[in-house]
Automatic annotation (TrEMBL), chain A:
Enzyme class: hydrolase
Cellular compartment(s): Cytoplasm; Nucleus
E.C. no: 3.5.1.15
Gene3D superfamilies linked: 2.20.25.160, Zn peptidases
Protein name: Aspartoacylase
Cofactor-binding details, from the entry: Binds 1 zinc ion per subunit.
Protein source organism: Myripristis murdjan
Annotated keywords: Cytoplasm, Hydrolase, Metal-binding, Nucleus, Zinc
Keyword Ribosomal protein: no
GO cellular component labels: cytosol; nucleus
Coiled-coil region(s): none
TrEMBL record, chain B:
Keyword Zinc attached: yes
Family classification: Belongs to the AspA/AstE family. Aspartoacylase subfamily.
This protein's GO CC annotations: apical plasma membrane; cytosol
Membrane-topology annotation of the record: Peripheral membrane protein
Domain annotation Succinylglutamate desuccinylase/Aspartoacylase catalytic: ranges: 18-209
Keyword field: Cell membrane, Cytoplasm, Hydrolase, Membrane, Metal-binding, Zinc
Alphabetized Pfam families for the sequence: AstE_AspA_cat (PF24827), AstE_AspA_hybrid (PF04952)
Organism superkingdom: Eukaryota
Range of residues in the leader sequence: none
Protein name from the UniProt record: N-acyl-aromatic-L-amino acid amidohydrolase
HAMAP family registered for this protein in UniProt: Aspartoacylase
Length: 312, 335
């Protein structure tokens, strides 16, 4: 490949690791608390890696949030809202985090933020990408996938104009979500904890190699692009009347074909998927999404091309 | 009370179970029970319709916690049923769950009185990999044990015994003359898994079938069952200053509920990778391994001894025996 296709990025000097964006997602809370006490494990030559608990009040209560979901709170309206102490707790936190690690969209913003999450869904170690044109992140994800092979690491791309949301990590130039499951809220499972730790280790190794001048050749990255949110069937009063079907439960990333069982009513009837084509569902039966009207989200497989990258 | 010698083959006669309560949402985020109670309330006819054999109350125990999808709002409802709490003073500072426990005691009790419902079946979920369990305060309540044996013939199930005298029994099912919790896992709190819900629904159906068989005069043969009696709890290792946990359940113990734990088997893995081992002298059966709600109660896992319990054959009392019994001062269910 000719070098004029190579994209240059400045060194990734300022990196943050966020835990507790949802206070009951315990892997991230535990890892970040550990690293706040002793951060040796996450330090790399030439990189300042800051571990940070984003939602301390929610962590203390071991609840997802106090007033409103922090991981939806980084909208332009919220970030510029006046009102100080009268604002919902998480909006105040968003403004503080934007001040410390942003401002979002500016040259002063942190280079990379890793946001550590758990899910009750059987998603394994999922990396979440917010832009299909972020070649730095694509190369990082390619590096991580190769490092943990044959174990897999699906990449979820959420670039959908309506379904995309304003995450804590979106303050950075290169936001990376780590979503590891299945783990119940409020529970710490050692296998999940270790898996997240390993993914992050590879991610930081990538940054170190990049900063040392390694050039990463062009590559392709298979991703799952978010397509549609599917809610539970509900009655006229908004009550859920069916559950994720046993055939679909735990089958994140597996094909769902038209006609396949999708939901099972409380009295045992099957409701089938009636979409136009095969989709790959994920976030199947995530506890936090009952209130967000989401039983699962459908995705479509896509192969993205990442340009070669090197430091400027 | 009446002599109930479990060794003899003489049939023990017990009172009809005229009133049965099925309770869900005692913890508002244990969703199988919440949805099952809603479903039973919607389709109430199949259980109550023209049913001379039994009348069934279907109760949502903690509506406020259900509405917020939390275990409880101020205090754990399922610890509010001791005699002391039920009969304590009332003020406008009384936590919601204590007020509610007293309401439930009026509805289903009063605990310890002849007016109490005959059987309470309280529906719970756990994040622990326990499968289906019945949890009861007695290892010699023949109603509970016969129900357990009947269930066992239909689905895999275990019986867990907490050895507490009635006054100190703190959970909802202790309000009834007989009672047990149906506990099913693993299910995350705030989630309903269809396989778990279906198991719970089948379990409740089998219980109600048994009650109808019993009330209509069926003799249930004597026999023996295995019972797990809770011995002790083990907490997580904690930081002496912050009280935060410093280790997680060891990967070799995670999900291994009811697999015998031997002295020196791994218990915890610290965050720096060190293995902490079981220091007890006696091999015991672990359960409630990594139950979310127990972190704040200081329980990483519970340990039980397993034993065999013999039960006599039982049959419902005839009308004549029932009348004779009314004239006695103590009911034979006196604990």
């Amino acid at each position: 490949m000719s070098s004029h296709n190579t994209v240059s990025f400045s060194e990734a000097r300022r990196v943050a690791v966020f835990g507790g964006t949802h206070g009951n997602e315990m892997s991230g809370v535990t890892l970040v608390n550990l690293w706040v006490k002793n951060g040796a494990e996450i330090q790399r030559k030439g990189v300042e890696t800051k571990p940070f608990i984003t939602n301390p009040k929610a962590v203390e209560k071991c609840s997802r949030y106090v007033d409103t979901d922090l991981n939806r709170a980084f909208t332009p309206e919220n970030l510029s809202a006046p009102g100080g102490d009268d604002l919902p707790y998480e909006v105040q936190r968003a403004q503080e985090i934007n001040r410390l690690f942003g401002p979002k969209g500016s040259p002063e913003a942190y280079d990379v933020i890793f946001d550590l999450h758990n899910t009750t869904s059987n998603m394994g170690c999922t990396l979440i990408l917010e832009s299909s044109k972020d070649h730095f992140n694509l190369q990082m994800m390619n590096y991580i996938k190769k490092a943990i092979a044959p174990a897999s690491c699906p990449v979820l791309l959420n670039e959908h104009p309506l379904l995309k949301y304003s995450t804590s990590r979106s303050v950075a130039k290169h936001p990376v979500g780590l979503e590891v499951g299945p783990q119940p809220q409020g529970v710490l499972r050692s296998n999940i904890f270790e898996a997240m730790r390993v993914i992050l280790k590879h991610a930081l190794d990538f940054i170190e190699l990049f900063n040392e001048g390694m050039e990463f050749p062009p590559c392709t990255v298979d991703v799952f692009r978010v397509s549609e949110r599917v809610d539970y069937p509900r009655d006229a009063n908004g009550n859920i009347i069916a559950m994720v079907h046993p055939n679909l439960q735990d089958c994140d990333w597996e094909p769902l074909n038209p006609g396949d069982p999708m939901f099972q009513t409380f009295d045992g009837k099957t409701i089938h998927y009636e979409g136009a084509g095969t989709v790959y569902p994920t976030f199947i039966n995530e506890a936090a999404y009952y209130e967000k009207q989401q039983a699962f989200v459908t995705t479509r497989r896509e192969t993205l091309v990442a340009s070669a990258i090197r430091k400027a | 009370g009446r002599d109930e010698n479990a060794e003899s083959e003489e049939v023990v006669h017990l009172s009809r179970l005229s009133r049965v309560a099925v309770c869900g949402g005692t913890h508002g985020n244990e969703l199988s029970g919440v949805y099952l109670v809603r479903e039973l309330q919607k389709t109430e006819k199949p259980l109550e319709e023209e049913d001379e054999l039994v009348s069934v109350l279907v109760v949502l125990s903690n509506p406020r916690a259900v509405q917020q999808c939390r275990r409880y709002t101020e205090t754990d409802l399922n610890r509010c049923f001791t005699h002391a709490t039920l009969n304590g003073p009332e003020s406008d500072k009384t936590p919601y769950e204590i007020t509610r426990s007293r309401e439930l005691n009026s509805l289903l009790g009063p605990k310890g009185s002849p007016e109490a419902v005959d059987l309470i079946c309280d529906l719970h979920n756990t994040t622990a990999n326990m499968g289906l369990c019945l949890i009861a305060y007695s290892d010699h309540d023949w109603i509970c044990l016969h129900i357990f044996r009947y269930l066992q013939a239909n689905i895999p199930v275990r019986y867990i015994h907490f050895d507490f005298p009635p006054k100190e029994a703190y959970s909802l099912e202790s309000v009834g003359k007989h009672g047990f919790a149906i506990e099913i896992g693993p299910q995350p709190h705030g989630v309903v898994r269809s396989n778990i819900y279906t198991t719970m629904k089948a379990g409740v159906q089998h219980v109600m079938d048994w009650v109808r068989f019993f009330n209509s005069g069926t003799i249930f043969e004597g026999g023996s069952v295995e019972v797990y009696t809770m011995v002790k709890n083990i907490d997580y290792p904690r930081d002496s200053e912050t009280h935060s946990i410093t280790a997680a359940i060891h990967p070799q113990l995670q999900d291994q509920d009811f697999c015998l734990l031997h002295p020196n088997d791994p218990l915890f893995q610290t965050f720096s990778g060190e293995t902490l081992r079981y220091k007890g002298k006696e091999p015991l059966y672990p359960f409630f391994i990594n139950e979310c709600a127990y972190y704040e109660k200081g329980i990483a896992l519970s340990l039980a001894r397993r034993k065999c319990v013999k039960m006599p054959p039982i049959q419902v009392k005839t009308e004549l025996e029932h009348q004779e019994n009314e004239w006695e001062f103590a009911s034979e269910e006196d604990e």
